[in-house]
Amino acid sequence: MSHLLKLLYEDNRCVVVQKPYFMGVHRSELIHDRITCLSVLRNQLGHHVYPVHRLDRQTTGALMFAKDKEALSSLMELFAGKQVQKLYVAVVRGWLKEAQWVDNAMDDPTTGQSVEALSYCFPIAETERPWPVGPFEKARYGLVGVQPHSGRWHQVRRHLRDLNRPILGDSVHGDTKQNRVFKKETGMYGLMLHAAKLKLVLPWSGMIEVTAPFEKRFSRLLQRWEWPTAIDLAEELPPRAES
Prior knowledge:
Largest sheet: 10 strands, mixed
């Protein structure tokens, strides 16, 4: 069976695709798959492309590639310089009562050094279900938006865990009991995290805002719980509290 990626944006220097669930971005020490987003897109477009950033294997959504090395350098500089607005949407355990900054440094897995990691998290919707979990008679779930202002490994997943609002289906940073109940009652599998938007100024053409639609697995849950499927970036972020 041939694989094709949905193109969300394309010009002569870059392309943004819809990353499918459980497809790795490219081969690495952790991913040895023959089929990756990189290999599929190269075959699909008929020429080399270069990943500008990364998404976890289980994360779906907007993923950008450059078409040449000069474009790659320019785009990576924008990402490193925090000039790209990114919106992630997640289903979490519990309710996030108010929007807040998470400013928790984390260790870089490649160097072991502590690095800055900053995210803005805000509530979107919530629900309560009659599903016992541990000592609780009911289960509470929330839909949250996260705008990371750095690009650390597992940053969104770890910051939501730090807020005691772990993402459903997260086997590393999540709640094992809650994951089991959620899967049993909803039939949903895997990490409930979606890279919903990218907004940036391309050096060669100007501003773009790319929206990645929710894939079927995620979309079914949103519809079932009557949660919104159109979610915008929070453009005016409140100032961070002084530490």
